[in-house]
Write a structure and sequence with these properties.
single chain, about 140 residues, alpha+beta, Nucleoside Triphosphate Pyrophosphohydrolase, four-stranded mixed beta sheet, three-stranded antiparallel beta sheet, 4 helices, about 35% strand, globular
Amino acid sequence: MTDSSRHVPCVGGIVYNPDGRLLLVRRANEPGRGSWSIPGGRVEPGEDEQTAVVRELREETGLDVRPGELVGVVRRGPYRIAEYRCVLDPADRASPTPVPGDDADDVRFVDLAGYAELPVVDGLTEALRDWDCLPRR
């Protein structure tokens, strides 16, 4: 059995607004219900990770993104989450307005001080710090 067959493939998108604030969602469902996290979710059958990132961010935040480099992979229980650095689509770049949907009950861009005030999912701060992906201001 390969490593990928033992884990549910998931993706997340690390997105900043023009001011360097990081996009976070408050999870409406388990795992992590009520905690803040990077938007993302499961990779659907037949879908590649980049396509899944675009779809999941649109579903959870209403924003269109373009996936870039893979910044890291985390494992949470049965989930293998590939986190991609993403940029906002040009139509959303100047004045991005996220809207919660799907698995999120709130969504916002946060600065470093705002991030420190939020209850985030276990391990998120350490992973973002290791990847140099915390809010930029």
